[in-house]
Design brief:
344 residues, alpha+beta, Rossmann fold, 2 domains, 8-stranded antiparallel beta sheet, binds fe (ii) ion
C-alpha cells in the first residue's frame, strides 16, 4: 500500500521529464485532465512546472459516463474530449499538452487534430508516482527505440516462437511502427511515460499462426498474470479460436464476445518491450488502482501482442487486449531481436 502523499523525489521525477521535453517559459503549456484523473499526478505536474518556473494553465473536463456493456480499460483512447471542441482547439493551439487523462490521448479521435496544430503531447500514464519515479526515461532508451524502429521499418516479416508452442508470422510490409522512449521534444509528436516499447500496426491480412499463453504471461486488460494455459489461433489477423480450460480462457472468451463485433477479435499491434528498468514482478506489488500496467508492457524482452482497433488496417472497436508473452524468440527477417525472452 502506497500513500498518496507528495514526495519531493516525485516532483523531481516530473521535472526531469518536463526538462527532457525542453519545455520553455515562452511556450504555451497546458495540463489536460479529467474529473477521474489521478489527483496526485495532477498536483505533481503543477508543482514540477512551478519549480521549473514554467507558466501553464489547466483544461479539466468531466469524465464521460461509461457506455453500457463491457467495462473498457487500458484502451489508450480517452473519450473525455468527445464533444469538447473548444477544449480541442485550445489544445491544438498549445505548444505542450501534458496529458493526464485516465486512458490517455494515444488513440483518441481528437489526437490527430491536436498534433496537426503543432502541439507535442506528453502523456503521463495513470500510474502511481512511485512507479513513474522509478522509470524516468534515459538517453539509452531513446537510442534503443530508434534502433528498434529502424529494424521494424526495414523488415518484411516478424516471426515469434516459443517452446510452449507459439508460432506467429506477421507481414511487416506497410506496417506503421512507433518507438516510445518516454518523452517528446518535437512539435506534432506524442510520447508516453513510462516508455521503452516498440509497437507496429500491421496492414490488414498480415497476422497468422498460434499464440500459446502460459502461466506467468500477462493479460494487462484484466491486470493479472495468466495462471492457466490459453492457446489463440490467428487467421488473417483474427483470433478464430480460444482454447483453454481455466478462468483465463473463460474470461477472455466472454470479454471478446461481449463487444459483439468481429473487429474486437482482430490484431491491433505487435512489438516488444526494451526498458531495463521495467520490472516483471510489478503487477504483484501494486494494488489495481495504483497501476495502469504500462511498466509491464515495457518489460525488456516481452513480446507484446494486442487485439483491438488498428486504424492502419481500417478497423475500429472499443475492445482491446494487451497480452505480453515472456520467454519468446522474436525475429525480423530471420534476425533475432529477442532470444528466449532476452534482448538480443
Ligand atoms: Fe495496446
Amino acid at each position: 500500500m502506497l500513500n498518496d502523499r507528495i514526495e519531493s523525489n516525485w516532483i523531481a521525477a516530473f521535472a526531469d521529464v518536463f526538462q527532457l521535453c525542453r519545455m520553455q517559459k515562452s511556450e504555451t503549456i497546458v495540463i489536460l485532465c479529467e474529473t477521474q484523473s489521478r489527483a496526485l499526478n495532477v498536483h505533481l505536474a503543477e508543482l514540477a512546472l512551478g519549480q521549473l518556473g514554467l507558466p501553464y494553465f489547466m483544461v479539466r473536463v468531466p469524465t464521460p459516463q461509461a457506455a453500457p456493456g463491457p467495462v473498457v480499460r487500458s484502451s489508450g483512447a480517452t473519450l473525455a474530449l468527445n464533444g469538447q471542441d473548444h477544449a480541442v482547439k485550445t489544445l491544438a493551439g498549445a505548444d505542450v499538452v501534458i496529458d493526464l487523462t485516465v486512458e490517455g490521448l494515444m488513440h483518441a479521435p481528437q489526437t490527430a487534430a491536436i498534433l496537426q496544430g503543432g502541439a507535442r503531447i506528453m502523456n503521463i500514464s495513470n500510474e502511481h508516482p512511485e512507479a513513474l519515479a522509478r522509470l524516468v526515461p534515459t538517453a539509452d532508451l531513446k537510442a534503443a527505440a530508434k534502433d528498434a524502429v529502424a529494424r521494424c521499418r526495414s523488415a518484411t516479416a516478424m516471426t515469434v516462437r516459443s517452446d510452449a508452442g507459439t508460432d506467429l508470422q506477421v507481414s511487416m510490409q506497410g506496417a506503421a511502427t512507433v518507438g516510445i522512449w518516454g518523452w517528446t521534444d518535437r512539435p506534432g509528436t506524442l510520447a508516453h511515460w513510462p516508455g521503452g516499447i516498440i509497437v507496429s500496426f500491421p496492414r490488414a491480412g498480415s497476422v497468422n499462426g498460434r499464440l500459446a499463453y502460459r502461466p506467468g504471461d500477462m493479460n494487462l486488460t484484466f491486470k493479472r498474470y495468466f495462471d492457466s494455459a490459453v492457446d489463440l489461433t490467428l487467421k488473417d489477423d483474427y483470433v478464430v479460436d480460444i482454447d483453454g480450460k481455466g478462468s483465463d480462457a473463460a474470461l477472455m472468451r466472454d470479454y471478446f464476445a461481449s463487444f459483439d463485433e468481429p473487429e474486437a477479435y482482430a490484431t491491433s499491434h505487435v512489438g516488444w518491450g526494451f526498458n531495463p528498468g521495467a520490472r516483471y514482478e510489478a503487477l504483484t506489488m501494486y494494488d489495481k488502482r495504483d497501476t495502469n500496467c504500462t511498466e509491464l508492457r515495457a518489460v525488456a524482452g516481452n513480446f507484446l501482442y494486442s487485439t483491438g482497433a488498428n486504424e492502419f488496417a481500417g478497423r475500429f472497436t472499443r475492445g482491446h487486449f494487451d497480452l505480453p508473452m515472456m520467454g519468446c524468440d522474436i525475429a525480423l527477417d530471420g534476425h533475432l531481436v529477442v532470444a528466449g525472452g532476452k534482448l538480443a
